[in-house]
């Protein structure tokens, strides 16, 4: 498994959970955390309803200063959510 490093440390899993909580506040149908996978470009979060690719810069903001993630950033992630079929 490949790990992402933010500020010289491995990305904690809570960063993904916190981001998912923020996204489900915008759209509760995104669902609950199921699994994740780190990639060179960021992370893939899987829920019970689909999956979402989260870019590295969003993970870094969520880790270091979540208030830097704008509503537009969150809405874009919600719009890019891929529903399971």
Which properties best describe this structure?
alpha+beta, four-stranded antiparallel beta sheet, 38% helix
| Estimated helix fraction | 25-40%
Write down the Rg: 12 Å
Portion in beta strands? 25-35%
Strand order of the largest sheet: 3-4-5-6
Number of domains: 1
Terminal Cα span: 26 Å
Low-confidence stretches: none
Number of strands: 6
Would you mind describing this structure in some detail?
This protein is of the alpha+beta class. It has one domain. The chain has three helices and six strands; from the N terminus they run ββαβββααβ. The chain has helices at 13-26, 56-64, 71-79, and strands at 5-6, 9-10, 33-39, 42-47, 50-55, 82-83. It has a four-stranded antiparallel beta sheet with strand order 3-4-5-6. The protein has a two-stranded antiparallel sheet with strand order 1-2. The N and C termini lie far apart (26 Å). The relative contact order is 0.21. The model has no long low-confidence stretch (mean pLDDT 90).
What would a concise description of this structure say?
The chain has helices at residues 13-26, 56-64, 71-79; strands at 5-6, 9-10, 33-39, 42-47, 50-55, 82-83. It is α+β, with helices and mostly antiparallel strands.
């Amino acid at each position: 498994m490949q790990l992402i490093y933010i500020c010289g440390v491995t990305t904690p899993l809570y960063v993904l959970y916190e981001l998912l909580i923020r996204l489900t506040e915008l759209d509760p149908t995104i669902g609950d955390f199921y699994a994740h996978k780190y990639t060179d470009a960021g992370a893939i979060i899987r829920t019970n309803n689909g999956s979402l690719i989260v870019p590295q810069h969003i993970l870094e903001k969520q880790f270091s200063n979540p208030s830097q993630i704008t509503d537009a950033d969150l809405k874009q992630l919600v719009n890019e959510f891929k529903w399971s079929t």
